[in-house]
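To whoever is on call:

I kicked off a structure prediction for a single chain this morning and the downstream step that reads the tokens threw a length-mismatch warning. I double-checked the sequence; it's 213 residues and nothing unusual in it as far as I can see. Pasting both halves so you can look.
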Amino acid sequence: MSEPFASAGHWTLVHPWVLPAVLGYLLGSIPFGLIFSKLAGYGDIRAIGSGNIGATNVLRTGNRVLALATLLFDGGKGAAAALAASAAWGPTAGLFAAAGAVLGHNFPVWLRFRGGKGVATTLGVLLAVAWPVCLAVCAIWLAMAYMFRISSLAALVALASAPVLMLVFADNSRALLALFLALLGFVRHHENIARLFAGTESRIGEKGRGKEG
């Protein structure tokens, strides 16, 4: 795989990872939760629950199939961004595209930069760049969600584990990506963290209320 723009002289004034990151951002910014909810007749998903466009809030409609579709497509866009850029320009470009995809989901230009919290998209990225780590992170999420029934707590613990797991099963570059995504996830969950400490965070499956995910 060649480095991006290595043979394109007109790109020499642009850092070689800008285009993969931008394309990843644009792919990641597609708000599947909002699109699917409107198509299914639930209106604007941002008007219920947490106002989030992710799968956890879509689940508050009571439609589990719709929530699953949102989860899969949000994860898929992260994986697609990483795999496509890696195939076209090399593994480093794939990491930048992956980071861009999560940023796009969290801060989509189409929604005035008010998006989701990036957990599903991060899982898709992890699946693409180091699938054993993705499986381990998913197992941690499921275990925490089963024990505590709080999606945000499960997500935070899973995100925190990702950089460590990357160091064990992958390499420093992918560990840095996982660290960036974990920090981004914690920033996006700052309200959830405050509610966790206050003991007021809502639980998985609570329909149409709460501010969890």
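Update from on-call: the warning came from a stale cache, not from the record. Cleared it. Sanity check on the structure: The two ends are 38 Å apart (CA to CA).
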